[in-house]
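Handout for the seminar on molecular recognition.
Each group receives one record of this type.
Step one: identify the two inputs.
Step two: read the structure output and locate the region that could contact magnesium ion.
Step three: write two sentences on what you found, then compare them with the reference statements printed after the record.
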Amino acid sequence: MTTFQPTRAGERMIAVEEAQEHVLAEVATLGTEMVVFSEALGRVLREDVRASADVPQADNTAMDGYAVRAEDIADPPVRLRVIEDLPAGSVATKRVERGTAVRIMTGALIPDGADTVAHVEITDGGNETVTVRQSLRAGTNVRRRGEDMQAGDVVLGDGTPIGAAEVGVLASVHKSVVRVARRPAVAIISTGDEIVDVDEPQPFGKVVNSNAYSLAALAREAGALPRMIGIVRDDRAATIAAIESALESDVIISSGGVSVGAYDFVKDALDALGAQTKFWQVAMKPGKPVVLSRVRGRLYFGLPGNPVSCMVSFILFIAPALRKAMGQRANLLPPTVSVRMMGPLKSRGDRRNYLRVRVVARDGELAAFPMTAQGSGVSTSMVQANGLAVVDMGITAIEAGSLVPAVLFGRVMSE
Ligand code: AMP
Ligand code: MG
């Protein structure tokens, strides 16, 4: 497989995978901070969390019914005397002896002497006495002590991204404050003489600075803290000054100014600042000019100006970098899955093409609807899209009905 093509003398266009490797190799995990567990959603755990006690604390019932001795109901129907009534959270005061039962609600602890719960559906539901119509194997409907977690177990490991389930487990083990990686500060610079900000008038020929806002939103989705640096004119000194003003952030992103145009000053500015540029062209469409650089210890991503190129480059390179910076160790890259194309795709075949699709679950598989306009300047082609169908170099057409790989960057819903 051809992984690169020569571009200028001594420089090469690298493959996406190689670019991703370079990116991840440049990222160091950030320092840590303590947060209240209920505020830890979206962060990455930076300590092992252990269970301090068994969960559940003791054997309890998984069903509403009657705590019994399995041997007492071996020959149904059997009538047992109900000696106590036990709501969830209360503890029995009596022992279940031969011929007796305790009425018990889901979650209540199994009384001494009992080994089985006859669920209410196989009984007559009696109060003074109960008739059980079916025999059960000892242990039926009993949740064992420590079945969920055992004291001392690592229940959440260092590097775990914290989602809803993890927040619940933190609560279960009384872990009120947790160590997480701090959020990366991400500076966002927009370059271009044609760019005006949203709150400015838009003279004919000017373009609204949408990139800064989509990039800030992507950064926020990734758990980072975006910082708006603003718009910088296509001027070498101004570009240098903008990058310098962004140096207190962990990651710096600029949009525009990385092509080979006469007014593309990002690479010049980086050189002037003594940056080490790792690559500046990736064999992909959209997003061929993508710069990865290290400037004064900060990670710098120079993205192309076209809104789609910008977002696609973020998804493929910056989101994985932010995950690693935030302490995640595995599953850093967006997942690639096989999707059934619901329409045809066209590509020039000269570079790997990432075409915007809406992936939905249909008939037990993933169906991908291509967006009608696929130009890298068509920002609305990203609206509703949650996947990028991958058409490799050398392939110019994909027929509807074909299975193709797609990078997922959004949640997949049912149709
Ligand atoms: P460039 O990569 O600088 O050549 O920019 C390519 C194109 O992207 C420009 O012609 C603009 O139309 C568009 N563009 C650049 N910067 C932005 C921005 N901040 N917001 C929206 N569109 C932009
Ligand atoms: Mg420009």
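Reference statements: Residues 159 and 328 are 5 Å apart (CA to CA). The longest strand covers residues 352-362.
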